[in-house]
User: Which sequence fits this backbone?
């Protein structure tokens, strides 16, 4: 039973691969965002620049930190309805 518990708690190769590739893909995504943002800014397409920057921020939060969205939702719900919960 003890070996089974250790096997469940251990990080498998998929978890390690996700952490490693997630960091690398995040860095590449950040470089692409910087390049596109600088290009749009250099062309003086400010509306497109602002739209792309907002889109990139939303995508980065949803893809690379989904737990942040979950915690914001639960904290917001508790803040709005804490009087009714008690």
Assistant:
């Amino acid at each position: 039973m003890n070996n089974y518990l250790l096997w469940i708690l251990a990080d498998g190769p998929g978890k390690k691969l996700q952490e490693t590739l997630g960091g690398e893909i995040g860095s590449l995504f950040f470089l692409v965002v910087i390049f596109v943002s600088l290009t749009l800014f250099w062309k003086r397409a400010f509306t497109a620049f602002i739209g792309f920057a907002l889109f990139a921020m939303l995508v980065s939060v949803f893809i690379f930190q989904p737990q942040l969205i979950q915690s914001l939702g639960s904290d917001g719900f508790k803040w709005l309805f804490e009087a009714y919960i008690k």
